[in-house]
Amino acid sequence: MEKLKRVLIITISISLVSEISINLWVSDFRVSLSVIIFSLFLIFYDNLKVINISIFTSVIVFLFRTGIDYAFTGDMSYGIVTNYPAVVFYIVYGIIFFIINIRSQKENMLYLFLGLFSCDLISNSIEILVRTGNFQISEFINMIRLLAVIAATRAFLTMIIIILFKYFKLIIVKQEHQERYKRLILLTSNLKSEIYFMKKNIDYVEKVMENSYKLYQNLSQYEIPSDLRKLSLSIAKDVHEIKKDYMRVIKGIENLTFNKSEFTKMRLKDIFTILEESTKRVLEIEDKDIELSFKCESNCRTQKHYALISILRNLVNNSIEALEQVSYKGKITVKHYKVEDNHIFEISDNGIGIKEEDKKIIFNPGFSNKFNASTGDIYRGLGLTLVKDVTKNYFGGKISLESNLNEGTIFTIEIPKNNLEVS
């Protein structure tokens, strides 16, 4: 039924377009652009049989034209005699199209043009012969010349449409690929942020395991019940298993992100574009009216783009949260510039600001003044800790902040040029 609907729509379109035409030499011989639609239909709907479509189209066009002629003249026989040669045209066109097998060579532009030209020229020539029956040689040659011009023109226009269709299709595919690329970058940066913390936690796990084993050794030197000694040893073993599980998870995520989605280098302006577009989407989804401004002075390349995206995104998210309680229009600015041999990143907002007593502990693990109002759960407070650790330990840089209560906050990240740029 779906195929039949498509065929009906296309054939009706062909019939309508065929009414916009001019007559040449022979009475009722029409030249229109409907052949272009017909040829495009045959080329792109390659799941339908060419001969069947040609016969179906010829019948619909014949009935449509005959119906119109009958409505104007009241003579059914006139409509039949006048329009039956059109049936010959579409059937012959389809037969030649099938024999030449244009569909299999539609990527070959020269073959496609010559094939469409041949279908058009031969079909038109046969239609005129059916309508008249005889021509003088000179008249027939003149007719062929004009039909060749018409066929070449319609074949050329058909190819232009096909080329434009492919061009716009490529643009759409490219845009989709870019969108997927941006989402993949953001996803990978988030995964690598989690890996960073997991690796950091492994150090704590190692210390817990070491202390548990030391406790077991110390207990063994005293007359302590064996159950307690076994318990301390069991704790050390369990912690060791937790560490191994951590390592397996980290290895699995790293294999996924490094092997399948690792992009070697990325320009700063591309990073800013990804951040800006992703932040806009978040604001649209959450229906927040916040003005964004992203300005990037340099367009150098870096291999540490995942880490950079991670810290910038964390700070932008903090700025969004700082603007949730204000009644005025919020504004967030992300700015990059260079000072001597350092890259400077500033993330500022006009939000509620940070209390003076909180400035000293805001980077400490677990610090958070945010909680879920529905559940009462406090957020884990690792965003700024991650930002500081990555900035200091991974980039060899430093982070500072300026904030005034109810006026806004500016986070400044300074990264040495040699730790960020690559050639």
**Can you tell me the CATH architecture of the largest domain?**
2-Layer Sandwich
In DSSP terms (H or I, runs of 4 or more residues), the helix count works out at 10
What name does the CATH topology of the largest domain carry? Heat Shock Protein 90
Low-confidence stretches: 371-381
Domain count: 3
Query: Which range does the strand content fall in?
Result: 5-15%
Percent in helix: 55-70%
The side-by-side strand order for the widest beta sheet comes to 4-6-7-9-8
- Name the overall outline: elongated
**CATH classification, class level of the largest domain:** Alpha Beta
Number of strands: 10
Q: Give the rounded overall mean pLDDT.
A: 80
CATH superfamily of the largest domain: Histidine kinase-like ATPase, C-terminal domain
- How many strands, what sense, and barrel or not for the largest sheet? 5 strands, mixed
Tell me the distance between the termini.
59 Å
What structural category do the secondary elements indicate? alpha+beta
Based on CA atoms alone, the radius of gyration comes out at 37 Å
Order of helices and strands: HEEHHHHHHEHEEHEEHEEE
Descriptive report:
- With about 425 residues, this protein is α+β, with helices and mostly antiparallel strands.
- It folds into three domains: about 1-135, no CATH class; about 185-260; about 265-420, Histidine kinase-like ATPase, C-terminal domain (Heat Shock Protein 90, 2-Layer Sandwich), CATH 3.30.565.
- About 65% of the residues lie in helices and about 15% in strands.
- It has helices at about 1-20, 35-45, 50-75, 75-100, 110-130, 135-220, 225-260, 270-285, 305-320, 385-395, and strands spanning about 20-25, 30, 265, 290-295, 300, 330-340, 340-350, 400-405, 410-415, 420.
- The strands form three sheets. A five-stranded mixed beta sheet has the order 4-6-7-9-8. Strands 3-5-10 form a three-stranded antiparallel beta sheet.
- α6 packs antiparallel against α7 and α6 (about 135-220) crosses α9 (about 305-320).
- The longest helix has about 80 residues, at about 135-220.
- The chain is elongated, with a radius of gyration of 37 Å.
